[in-house]
């Protein structure tokens, strides 16, 4: 009998991710935003005033990588850093009017890629697949936190 761990799926997950990025980036090139920049902009649009470390945590990225994304977004006029009124050493991040002007278009691009990717897939199938992927993510996060996947609540 085949066990779940005998089924190789890592390459498939990677391929889907790469293709999703490629098609998103291809459509979003007219706005000058990569997918990573779009994710950061969207997060800041919904949660303005985050610190860079808080944004990194929300995006599940390393702070140094988020710093580079924010540097590029700031240089392109999509994000601005403002001093934190409670901490002179810290900065808060805010989207600019330029970013607000492209949010709706970027949402349409993301929805279009999702639509193309899910042709022939029912909502129930997608919800089931997402549930399984979330459980895998939780299992792997448990390992990062010194636990064991069996400790994850289902």
From TrEMBL:
Molecular-function GO terms, alphabetical: DNA binding
By its UniProt entry, which Pfam families does this protein fall under? MarR (PF01047)
Q: Which domain of life is it from?
A: Bacteria
Which SMART domains does this chain map to?
Answer: HTH_MARR
Keyword match ATP-binding:
no
Q: Which PROSITE patterns match?
A: HTH_MARR_2
Entry coiled-coil feature ranges: none
User: Which keywords accompany this UniProt record?
Assistant: DNA-binding, Transcription, Transcription regulation
Which InterPro entries has this protein been placed in?
HTH_MarR-typ, MarR/SlyA-like, WH-like_DNA-bd_sf, WH_DNA-bd_sf
Give the matching Gene3D superfamilies: Winged helix-like DNA-binding domain superfamily/Winged helix DNA-binding domain (1.10.10.10)
Key word DNA repair present in the record? no
Protein known as: DNA-binding MarR family transcriptional regulator
Q: Which organism is it from?
A: Dyella japonica
């Amino acid at each position: 009998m085949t066990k779940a761990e005998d089924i190789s799926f890592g390459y498939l997950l990677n391929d889907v991710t790469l293709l999703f990025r490629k098609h998103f980036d291809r459509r979003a090139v007219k706005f000058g935003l990569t997918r990573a920049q779009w994710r950061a902009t969207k997060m800041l649009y919904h949660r303005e005033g985050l610190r860079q470390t808080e944004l990194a945590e929300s995006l599940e990225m390393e702070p140094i990588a988020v710093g580079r994304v924010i540097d590029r977004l700031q240089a392109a006029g999509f994000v601005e850093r403002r001093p934190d009124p409670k901490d002179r050493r810290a900065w808060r991040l805010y989207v600019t009017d330029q970013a607000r002007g492209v949010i709706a278009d970027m949402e349409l691009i993301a929805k279009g890629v999702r639509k193309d990717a899910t042709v022939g897939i029912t909502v129930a199938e997608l919800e089931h697949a997402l549930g399984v992927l979330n459980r895998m993510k939780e299992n792997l996060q448990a390992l990062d936190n010194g636990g064991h996947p069996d400790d994850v609540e289902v």
